[in-house]
Known about the structure:
- This protein is mainly α.
- It contains 4 helices and 2 strands, in the order H-E-E-H-H-H.
- It has one domain: Methane Monooxygenase Hydroxylase, Chain G, domain 1, CATH 1.20.58.
- The protein has a two-stranded antiparallel sheet.
- Helix 2 (26-48) runs antiparallel to helix 3 (53-85).
Amino acid sequence: MNARLDKIITRGIIPLGGIYHMKYTDKQLSNHLHRIKGQLSGAERMINAERSCDEVVMQLMAARSSIERLSLNILQSETDSCFKSKKPADIKKLKNVASILFKYT
């Protein structure tokens, strides 16, 4: 594991995209999913209405960005308890999740 990753893990924060992702409640996660569904439905309607390519792509990019944010927030919520416990097994689990995040972000 690299030093930067170890430093982030021991601090108990995962900086992503310049902001710190906070734990979402189940209701907030559900609302976020509904927003994403709305964005995708909107893109479908735009395609059916033969809207311009750039408008459709912009809508799809907004949905993609929202999906990525939601995914990161779900991971943050999932790892929250590991940061608090400081058990060796949880630290190992956190390092694994963090390495996945750095790989795909």
